[in-house]
Design a protein that fits this description.
It is built from two helices and ten strands. The strands form three sheets. A four-stranded antiparallel sheet has the order 3-10-8-5, with no helix packed on it. A four-stranded antiparallel sheet has the order 7-6-4-9, with no helix packed on it. A two-stranded antiparallel sheet has the order 1-2.
């Protein structure tokens, strides 16, 4: 059987519809063409499908405080995004806030760099900073506590 004849048979059986298996014997001519539709056996479809390449995404590790933070027992100001937290507007500059400082709603308490954009983080309410929970230059996650505060 020639290639042209095989192509003609495939066209006849609907090559454009997708033939999953083609078996041809030459002597005494034998042909087997299989097409799997939506109702095909799972094993046949799995055999016909090529495995997709797997992609592994590794997230950067984020340092956490030594004691787990229980949000129910204290008030916190949390990160509104994923990025890198900075306590000051530039290296060597004075930090936005310090422990014991009273902060008013809308005051800048830090910067989170995300995708090369510096985002000022503002206090959501009037409060006193009790403890800084993240270090300068530390990666932070969404909703991660940045500061332990006392609401005023």
């Amino acid at each position: 059987m020639t290639k042209a004849e095989i192509k003609e048979l495939m066209d006849f059986f609907g090559e454009k519809q997708g033939i999953n298996e083609l078996k041809i014997k030459d002597k005494d001519f034998e042909i087997e063409i299989k097409k799997y539709g939506a109702n095909a056996p799972a094993a046949a479809q799995a055999q016909a499908a090529m495995p997709a390449p797997q992609m592994t995404i590794v997230a950067p590790s984020v340092a956490h405080s030594e004691k787990p933070v229980s949000k129910g027992s204290m008030d916190t100001i949390d990160s509104p995004m994923v990025g890198t937290f900075y306590k000051a507007p530039s290296p060597g500059a004075t930090e936005f806030v310090s422990v014991g400082q009273v902060v008013h709603k809308g005051d800048t308490i830090g910067i989170i760099e995300a995708m090369k954009i510096m985002n000022e983080i503002e206090a959501e309410f009037d409060c006193r900073i009790k403890k800084a929970l993240v270090e300068d230059g530390q990666p932070v996650e969404y909703a991660m506590a940045l500061f332990e505060v006392e609401k005023l």
